[in-house]
Amino acid sequence: MHNPWREIKTLNPETEIWWDSSPLVWPNFKDKMKRYPGLSAEEQSWLNAEIETMFFDGPVENWVYDGCTTNPPLSWAVLQTRKEEWAGIVADMRKSYTGKSKYGLFRKVYIETVKRGAEKFMPLFEASGGKHGHISGQVDPLLSYNGPAMREMADELAEISPNVMIKIPGTTEGIPIFKYLASRGVSTNATAVFNLSQIMAVAENVAEGRKIHLAESGTPRHGWRAVCTHMNGRLEDSAAFRGVIDKKNLNINAFELRTATEVVVKKAARLFVERDLPIKMLNCSARKHVNQKGEIVYPHIEMFAGGPVVYTVPPDVIGDVLVHYRNKSFKPNWNSEPDTATVEKLNQVEYYRRSVDENGFAVEEFNEITSMVENMNSFQAAIRDMIQYVGSFL
């Protein structure tokens, strides 16, 4: 048995694994993994030992994780899964809060979750000279279509710690903020990005901002970097994509559908190199499948093995891959071209054709992208729930 997450990092020194949740829920993950179904006593003992060495419990040089993506909905999960602990923290924060706004108290609590998460990753940030150890602090999804409000919150988040990377959505209003933050030397992570048009708009704004910062700053800000998140499964599972396939009864199966992400991400990464753009692709929302042998597999993880990419992985997927890939190896698939026959099938779907075209969507259309609308609705609903809970302490 071997740790597949450690193995995949040996295929390319630029492959990174990030924790896709708040680091504050790591104890919950550990407890859950101690009761993984279907394992023998020997296998469970191996799993427990691996988990003990992967993160905060071991020396920083042994961590599997290179960074962390989080957001307000994931911070809401902290308050839900560690309810007793955070009820006390929120109650204490309420005592020092002189306002009467539910939203005002929510902002304070959310900032506190980012701050505590950044502290957890600071040893790695320092040990790596600022290359690793970043944690994404996202602006409130309720502000996703309000440029000035996002800038204001981005500035607030950037003051927390040098290892806080500001997460901005790829909305029409969000795109110019990447240039603004990069010009100040602030690290960024683009979220709610689904297609090549959004990716390249983000990358070009980051590059322009970086040039400004280097030209104007005698001492560039330590630890700067930029990543662009592609929401793999959230592109493909959209009503405009899978919904159309199902409605038209197209001959495209679930595995073939995942090729859409492979085309977008590999094309974007090549363009970054060709155009010398200072940004890296980050993949999230990997989807679970069962293959013809009855094995649990993750195509979104396998297809990018060996690539200079970031995988950000939620706790359940971390555990699944540890268990189901413990006796098999990843193939270096990064330089493999997407299957031509599958691409031809996908070209039947207009949403796919536009998603893999650099000019498929104009910036002013970004807010109308079906995947964007679907995901912003779900993110905003989670935030409203958190605001209501925090507001109950007033």
Q: How is this structure best summarized?
A:
Helices cover 51% and strands 11% of the residues. With 394 residues, the chain is of the alpha/beta class.
Structural commentary:
The chain has about 400 residues and is of the alpha/beta class. The protein has one domain (about 5-390): Aldolase class I (TIM Barrel, Alpha-Beta Barrel), CATH 3.20.20.70. The protein is about 50% helix and about 10% strand. The mean pLDDT is about 95.
Question: Topology, pairings included?
Answer:
Blueprint: H1 4-10, E1 16-20, H2 26-33, H3 41-54, E2 67-69, H4 72-81, H5 83-96, H6 102-127, E3 134-138, H7 147-158, E4 164-169, H8 175-183, E5 188-191, H9 196-216, E6 226-231, H10 232-236, H11 242-248, H12 254-257, H13 259-274, E7 280-284, E8 289-290, E9 296-297, H14 299-302, E10 310-313, H15 315-324, H16 340-346, H17 350-355, H18 370-391
Parallel strand pairs: 1-2, 1-10, 2-3, 3-4, 4-5, 5-6, 6-7, 7-10
Antiparallel strand pairs: 8-9
